[in-house]
Amino acid sequence: MEQFAFYLFSVLTIGLFLVTVLSNNVLYAMTSLAAGMVIISGFFFILGADFLGVVQLIVYVGAVMALYSFGMMFFDATREIKEKNTNAYLVFFLGGMIALLLVVMFSVLIMGEGIVAMYPTPEGANNPQAVGLVLFTKYLVPFEVAAVMLLVAMIAGIILAGKKMDDSLTTKDENHEEEMTFSLKDVR
Amino acid sequence: MDALIIETVVKAIVVLLVISALAGFGTYLERKVLAFMQRRLGPMHVGPFGLLQILADGIKLFTKEDIVPQHANRLIFMVAPAITAATAFIALAAVPLFPEFTLFGYTIRPIVADLNVGILFVLGAMASGLYGPLLAGMAQANKWGIIGSARTAILFLSYEVVTGLSILAPIMIVGSLSLIDFNNAQAGGVSDWMVWQQPVAFVLFLIAGFAETNRTPFDLLEHEAEVISGYATEYSGMRWGMFFIGEYANMITVAFLASLVFFGGFNPIGFIPGFLAIILKVSFFFFLMLWVRASWPHVRPDQLMWLCWKVLMPIAILNILITGIVLL
User: Fold this and answer.
1) Which of B1, B71, B116 is opposite residue A78, by nearest beta carbon?
2) Number of domains chain B is built from
3) Considering CB atoms only, which of A71, A78, A126 is closest to B141?
4) CA–CA distances in Å: residue B54 to residues A141, B59, B215, B253
5) Interface pTM (ipTM) of the complex?
6) Exposure winner among A92, B29, B227, B250, fewest CB in 10 A?
7) What residue of A is the nearest CA neighbor of B124?
């Protein structure tokens, strides 16, 4: 049963991400990306890592939603997009090399000593508690560093976006129309 | 193993059928309640008290022509309603609906999939349901549809942070993500209800829940006066009906979540048995949604974003901080 689910999810994931890469249509590309991300969470559920599966679901649903809004702004979603492809062979070569590199990197671990769980789950702790234990003991420093980096990114984002935050475009009076077109041009 | 699979399939089918039927009945209730609050009569000509109106509407939806606009992206256009309906029911799978009961000497636990991260799963599945309106709006080659899907993205980016943060404080108190643990933590009667300890979190969760289900103060996806029907402009027949069923299933899910997390779940209150107690609570929350729809105008997209990020999120974070300090 588990194997059947694994192979089903694998085929679906690979197929969907292929559509993401090969399709000329923004809507197909992003829909298959979102669906693939959702299906990856299925692998976590098969492995019994419920918490990670749900986090994958929540995080990527939001992330791809933001991508969609960019797609909506820049493309007509119902038309095909003409891609500017200057050197197809170079793209093919680089893509293949990166794929090969990834395969080698992951197979070294498997061929070498095999993957062993260094921190077995404590008895009686359920999934979220196990994640929390590892996060606050072994991986405390990377966890805190990631938190600080996210804070920095958030502040930078607010500063970049916040220059025109005080004058809202929707609540402006008619009299200030001139000013409004100016700020619109600025945004573009 | 086989027994488990059969049991799960049976439960899934029962939930699907009952909730779909309730969605149909919900439209009748909504129209009657709104009519009562606005001093009208509502549906009353078809059958006794207009009850057969549901049947008539159902026949109309099923037999209507299924139109796909000429320049639309056919595949995505046809898949989008199924996403909304399916995710609504997937979310419901992790919700414990009733207390355990015994039927023909066989103990049944009325939850389709008992995850130990139930509450996060429900919220995540409901959030992915918003892909339905988003894709529908973008695929239909209609300006109102595009505006509708842009508003979907705004809605999603606004409410999501409030839902997560508001539910965090109760999670910290209970110390578990399982909805059954939430229910058991409030087993000691009315005074044990989470709402007395976390009134702020409850109000925040309810506001975010209204946004999540696309109900009236925040129904900017398909507000008729502004964007015709938003993402659903080009839809007809059963595809439109699937959006509708999804929305009502989501309303029922949010009502269940609110009563499980904050109002004691399916524990018996005094002489009222557990299953009746939760039906009463869920009915109340369903009624509350209709009540709010009759009482309040809807907000603009930028007002929703302002509300969620500048008002509700700071309150939610303060609530978490205070809860953390008290727990320490």
Assistant:
1) B71
2) 1
3) A78
4) 59, 9, 21, 22
5) 0.78
6) A92
7) A58
